[in-house]
Here is the input.
Amino acid sequence: MSSGGGDLPELLAPEIDPDAPVEGRGDRLAGVLVRSLEGRRVLCDLFSAQAGVLERNVSAEGAGHWKRTAIGNVDVMAALVRRWLPELGDGAAAFCAQAVMVAGAVWTHARPSAAMLDAYDADPSLAQLRMGFAPALRTVLAALMAGTLARAAAL
Here is the structure.
């Protein structure tokens, strides 16, 4: 799974100490994932348009091909994530699929329309709703990871 700037295992290796406590590894993984997406605007645009745009007005054959490819990509990502967080077990695939969905949603919200920017300027009390992509996604992914790890530990 090439990320354009190196493979995910190469990105993770210097970042995640396999002997660190699981919570620390989960937080570090969230950070690595965010950094890997920050500069990939087109990929984030595609994530954000996936369900609402790209999966509309296509044939069943095209939709099936798209989903099979997406499942394959999530499986590859999950296998890589499990190398650094084996405690996730089968939850790694769910985490990875949800991380893609969340990344698309945060990307959309972190890029407000011109009208929304004007609304923020007109009413400073709305400024609390503005978000930066990287900090918001890191927070959400860390929380998602913590929940996925807690569920895996409870099983």
